[in-house]
Amino acid sequence: AARHPSRFWADPVAFFTDGPTVNLGCDFGAMPSLFEPGGIVQQEFFVAGTPVVAFKTGGLRDTVHEFNPETKEGNGVTFEAHNTDDYKWAIRRALRIFSEPQLYARIRRNAVESVVDLSVVCRAWNDEFHRLRKCITGPTLMRFSWRVGREKATPASSVAVTGLGGDWATSYPLTFNREKFEFELELDLPRGTHAFKY
After folding, report:
1. In which band, very low, low, confident or very high, does the pLDDT at 164 lie, cut at 50, 70 and 90?
2. Which long-range contacts link 100-104 to residues 24+ away (Cβ below 8 Å)?
3. Among residues 25, 26, 74, 115, which is most buried (max CB within 10 A)?
4. Of 6, 8, 28, whose CA–CA distance to 79 is shortest?
5. d(Cα 119, Cα 111) in Å, to the nearest integer?
6. For residues 172 and 127, what is the distance between their CA atoms, to the nearest angstrom?
7. Terminal C-alpha separation, the chain
8. Could you read off the pLDDT of 92-141 as tens digits, one per residue?
9. Cα angle at 163 between 113 and 43, to 5 degrees?
10. Helix (H) or strand (E) holding 160
């Protein structure tokens, strides 16, 4: 950068082959997306301590916050109108922050501290999808069954269920239903994704 102050380098392929290094080497991440529903890229920049210049849309609006040089709060630079002038103004503000080493060090630290746990994001998206579908996201009644063949196969006698951080530690006994000739169980489980094994 010192040898070529008016130039920049870009290699889009390197982002997919060595993204973490690219993120670490950036002074700012540019995300002028017109639409960004959640956005994981800004989180990748934040993990690397790289502040982001972003258009205030979707998930970027929720996670990229304007850096205030006086209060030292914020993890990036944002712009309100999706046009060239607003974007240029945001870049100028980012360059001003970059030109002051103490401010730039602080915005980088803020970026690292603002990383969002993606499990929180997943739960929020799950809630949003259910809201949009006007579904109730309460406990789910799940039915497990293990059909027993007429031959003398050894049937499963229990089922283990995990989800929302479970560790397969709890097994639930299956009850034999003579009419259906199968073992079965019904559980009320908290909302979320669950896996099971017999």
Report:
1. very low
2. 100/69, 103/67, 103/69, 103/72
3. 74
4. 28
5. 19
6. 28
7. 59
8. 999 999 999 999 999 999 999 999 887 777 777 777 777 776 654 455 55
9. 25
10. strand 158-163
Structure tokens, 126: 């799950």
pTM value is: 0.58
Distance, in Å, from the CA atom of 27 to the CA atom of 76, rounded to the nearest integer, reads 11
Identify whether the C-beta of residue 146 lies closer than 8 Å to the C-beta of residue 152.
no
CA 44 to CA 31: how far, in whole Å? 12
* Secondary structure class of 40 (helix, strand, coil): coil
> What are the phi and psi torsion angles at 12 (to 5°)?
-55, -30
Count Cβ neighbours within 10 Å for each residue of 157-189 and write b for 16 or more, e otherwise: eebebeeeeeeeeeeeebeeeeeeebbebeeee
Tokens of 186: 């019904």
Q: What are phi and psi of 175, to 5 degrees?
A: -105, 135
Residue with tokens 């969002």: 116
